[in-house]
Amino acid sequence: MKSRAALRSALTLLLFGLALWAVDRVLRAYPAADILRALQAVPPRSILLAVAITLLGYLALVGYDVVAFRFVGPRLPLHRMILPSFISFAVSNNAPASMVTAGGVRYRLYQPQGLTLLAAAAVAGLNIITYALGLCVLAGVALLFRSDSGPGAGLPGRVVGMLLLAAAAGYLLAARFVRRAVRVRGQEVRLPPLRIAVAQLGVSVADWALSSGALFVLVAGVSHISYLGFLTAFLVSQFASLLVPIPGGLGVFEAGVLLLRPRGIDAPLILAALLLYRVVYYLLPLTAAGALLAFDALQRIRRADQPFRELMRRVHSLAPRVLALTTFLAGVVLLVSGAIPSDDRRLAWLARLLPLTVIEASHFLSSIVGAVLVLSAWGLERRSHVAYHLVRMLFGVGIVLTLLHSFDLRLATFLAVTLAILVLAGREFPRPEPLARQPMGPRWVFAAGAVFLVEAWTGALLYRNVQFGNDVWWHFALFGQGSRALRAAVGASIVMLLFAIERLISGSVPAIRRH
Question: Beta-carbon neighbour count of residue 89 at 10 Å?
Answer without folding.
Answer: 27
